[in-house]
Amino acid sequence: MTHSPPDSAPHSAPASGGDWLSAACGQTDPAVLVTVAMVEGSGPRAAGAAMLFTADGQFDTIGGGHLELKAGEIARRLLAAGAGEESARQGAMQGTMHSARLQRFALGPTLGQCCGGVTFLCFELLDAAALAQLRQLQAWRLDGRDGWRLIALDAHRPAQLIDGSDAAWRDMPAAADCRLINATDGRRWLATPFFSESRHLVLFGAGHVGAALVRALAPLPCRVTWVDERAELFPPDLPPNVAIETSRDPLQVATEAPPDALFLVMTHSHALDQQLTDAILRRKELAWFGLIGSKTKRMLFEHRLAARGIDAARLARMTCPIGLPGIGGKEPAVIAASVCAQLLQVWQTPPARTCAGTPADQVSRETRNEMNNTAGEPLPAEIMNTMAG
Predict the structure, then answer these.
(1) Kind and range of the H or E element at 38?
(2) CB 52 within 8 A of CB 23
């Protein structure tokens, strides 16, 4: 059975750090989402980076420095104003406080940062409805579904979600990048993609090193399937990006894992390690495979697996020992840090993500006008026309 952390109910979040979307899922009070909408020249973070400000703290980062300091000051002023609106029940649009605005920051002349470029930030005051929408996005992400979020910058209008089940998906931009859309009527929209994480690690073994590795991977952009038949070893609190597998045979998990999965084997049994190594090396698709152990263990496994018919070229695909060269500590946390850095190197150039839709110029105006979002409201015609043009 595969288990994932619950994501539907709000929960208490730490005061700082962490993934902003996961933090937003735990909020019940108003919050401000700050998103890098566009960067001209050099900037501390690329378009799409975001951070969340709440009454208790902040989550994630848009790059630090003076830019983030100023963004925090603005966000807290918006929070204070939003709290006043809520108490007076005078929201910006029929009882809702949701609103968004765009602000330009010249990093060099205005903020004294050496980046020297220009960053445009979107400040979005999130009410209960917007927070519920972000929980929906998190559910999509955990379920492996891709989506877009459209934010109106010049009108008090709720953000809209689009996923592959919507007809409008076909007219979304082909490249999966956060972008500003200048609509035909002069209004502006921010289109932000939320794609399920394609970087997937299948980790066998819930011992000390496995647990340290899961903790180290928790804030990183990846998904982890953590496999061990000893269910009692798993901690009660799992990071949002981790799903545990306890009921299936580990060899079945190795055989049936997705084509782009990476594998790490570090179980309590050398016999099981060898069986898993055999199964993984016999897969048709093998992106990367690491096995914990010494050079002696590698030589022993190579000798045994060669006798079982695995050729030298396939054996060379096995990474053992694991971790970066020059880091020799055997403490679980040290091994985890070294292996995390190694995995990031492997993931450094992920495959390009694109929408699977029809190019906009191949969709008729009549079809675009009929497109609906998940809330049943038609997407603004000015957006559809812009995407088509």
Answers:
(1) strand 31-40
(2) yes
